[in-house]
Specification:
- The protein has 223 residues and is an alpha+beta fold.
- It is built from four helices and ten strands; from the N terminus they run H-E-E-H-E-E-E-E-E-E-H-E-H-E.
- Strands 5, 6, 7, 8, 9 and 10 form a six-stranded antiparallel sheet that branches. Strands 1-2 form a two-stranded antiparallel sheet.
- Strand 6 and strand 7 form a beta hairpin.
- The radius of gyration is 34 Å and the shape is elongated.
- About 3% of the residues have low confidence.
């Protein structure tokens, strides 16, 4: 008979809590939790503010239907105070004092009280074929004038229209009223539009109209 093989020696196992791999795993999990919490905290720094859903010109009333909510992160509270936060509705009876583009944040400097702003409502009588059919209240348009009395209708412009004789008589104005064709076309053969214009440009426009023997108005809509 051969020499018997002795049984394998049994070693005392190290406690699991002393395993360095356990502590390494705990550190990784803890670091992930801390990093995630910081990222969430940074995301919470953003605030919601009002922005315009479409382009609007000076003199246009600020209506709730024209506003959308955008989430923005500002560098400091002083910058935030320049805009209207979406936590509260925009005050009533405000009008734009300058043109505002689609998606632009509504700045407090861009609006004024309707009863304090020098904005006039100028009515325009337009041939239906010279105005886009979808022009409605809130549309931003350019108003072009020609003198139809001559053999060739020459374009004219108000003095303040970018100092160009070949530019629009009114540029980037907002339509504040646009009666339907049924309300005006059947009676006069023309369509009426009412645009909001500041005092100075309104005066220049009226003076320009008075110099034309046969003023022809053409409306170009901004998309």
């Amino acid at each position: 008979m051969g020499t018997p093989v002795p049984p394998a020696a049994q070693r005392v196992a190290r406690p699991a809590w002393r395993d360095p791999r356990l502590w390494l795993g705990v550190l990784l999990v803890t670091g992930s939790v801390v990093l995630g919490a910081r990222l969430l905290a940074a995301a919470d720094d953003s605030v919601t503010v009002w922005a315009l859903s479409g382009e609007r010109g000076a003199g246009a009333p600020v209506a709730a239907a024209d506003l959308v909510v955008q989430r923005v992160r500002f560098a400091d509270d002083a910058t935030l105070e320049r805009y209207f936060t979406a936590d509260e509705p925009v005050p009533d009876d405000l009008v734009l004092v300058r043109a505002v583009g689609e998606g632009e944040l509504l700045a407090r400097s861009a609006v004024g009280a309707a009863d304090e702003e020098a904005v006039l409502r100028v009515p325009l009588e337009v041939d239906p074929n010279r105005v886009p059919p979808d022009v409605a209240a809130g549309s931003v348009v350019d108003v072009w004038l020609t003198d139809g009395s001559g053999p060739v209708a020459a374009p004219t412009a108000a003095k303040g229209a970018d100092d160009k004789a070949d530019g629009p008589a009114l540029s980037g104005v907002t339509v504040v009223a646009a009666p339907s064709y049924d309300d005006t076309f059947a009676v006069t053969g023309a369509r009426q539009l009412v645009v909001a214009v500041d005092d100075d440009r309104a005066a220049e426009f009226e003076l320009l109209l008075s110099t034309l023997q046969d003023p022809v108005i053409r409306i170009l809509q901004r998309s």
